[in-house]
Amino acid sequence: MLRQTKTADNRSHKDRSTRWRNYIPGIALCVVISALSLAVQSVETHVFSHPYVDVIVLAIILGMVIRAVWQPGERWQPGIAFSAKQLLEIAVMLLGASLSLAAIAASGPLLLMAVVATVAVALAFSYGVSRMLGLSIRMSILIACGNSICGNSAIAAVAPVIRANSDDVGASISFTAILGVLTVIGLPLFIPLLNLTASQYGILAGLTVYAVPQVLAATLPVGLVSVQIGTLVKLLRVLMLGPVVIALTIFAKNIRSEGAMLTAGDARNRFTWVPWFIPGFLFLSAARSFDLIPHAAILPIAKIAGFLTVVSMAALGLGVDLKLLGRIGARVTAAVSLSLIVLISISLALVHLF
Asked: Fewer CB near the last or first residue (10 Å), C or N of the chain?
């Protein structure tokens, strides 16, 4: 009996070792794509002082280009799938260490309420427009979160919660990224058109620009006041990602099949299915809020989370079918464009309150 137990343990250990070895080629490919993307972003930073195209976008585009000319075979698939799902879940969990409730308390209730209201209205409008244009439930959620909260990072964080596939993530990130860059370039035009002050422009940039580096790129030419206010508002927007992810976690059970009605069983069980990384996210966020995470560890954790996200985006890019993007491109572009127009309109209205 003891001999049989040892044999079974050895076989199980061997199976695990084999499985992990199967992951290596695909993970290595995604890491190489990530390294190339980081190198391109470094060149951007050197030339333009700030990266106009985020490394997340670069990784997914490079992965898509590679997939267009060469489709990885079975040898690569286990590692690519692991990078796209498990590594992304780990990255989302680690994001909790970067979010502190103290930032919300220090910003003041009026500004916080303005950011929450803007995000809520933008989420509802973006989702509604996307559905009206015939996009899937998952794609509509990704576009809404990306447009309303923090662009590519929000899409990457929400994707594993709603079990979005590579095509949905690739399409939403690609088209959102293009408009994000155009927003950075065109937003300063509102300063002379509407006679905005530096503070007002900082609020506008923080409420509309998708990524934190892009906020810096949009506000630095205006001055330090715009940079500080824009960054604060943008970080408050990013903090909304936590509540949105938690809400989607509760209702993600309802999105298992496109257009499916909520059954009695789903209604009973929707509170019991919680992805493992959500409690981890909440735990790290609480630990950060109560200063239980050493300050010296926060930046390394954030860098690890960022790199894992880039690796995951490279994997998702390798799974994107460009033919599908061609078929849905016009609808996605329309959804993102209309959502951005409404977001800018809401933000301009709020700017005059401050």
From this structure: N
The two structure tokens encoding residue 212: 């934190």
CB 254 within 8 A of CB 262: yes
Q: What is the pTM of this model?
A: 0.63
Write the pLDDT tens digit of every residue in 110-126.
777 888 888 899 999 99
- Residue 246: CB atoms within 10 A of its CB come to 14
Question: What CA–CA distance (Å, rounded) separates 303 from 283?
Answer: 19
Q: Which residues contact 132 (CB under 8 A, 6 or more apart)?
A: none
Low-confidence ranges of the chain (pLDDT < 50): 256-273
Report in angstroms the alpha-carbon separations of 193 from 55, 186, 255: 32, 12, 43
Do 54 and 211 meet the contact criterion of CB atoms below 8 Å apart? yes
Residue 54: CB partners within 8 Å, gap ≥ 6? 41, 151, 152, 177, 180, 211, 213, 214
49: phi > 0 → left, psi -120 to 50 → alpha, else beta; which? left
Provide the pLDDT for residue 167. 75
| C-beta separation of 205 from 226 below 8 A | yes
Helix ranges restricted to H, the chain:
2-48, 55-69, 77-82, 88-95, 101-107, 109-132, 137-145, 152-162, 166-186, 190-194, 198-208, 212-219, 224-239, 241-251, 264-269, 277-289, 295-318, 322-351
What are the strands, taking DSSP E only, across the chain?
none
Token pair in block for residue 125: 């409008």
**What pLDDT does 39 receive?**
92
Instruction: Give every CB contact of residue 272 below 8 A, 6+ residues apart in sequence.
Output: none
Q: For 105, phi and psi rounded to 5 degrees?
A: -65, -35
Other C-beta atoms lying within 10 Å of the C-beta of residue 198: 17
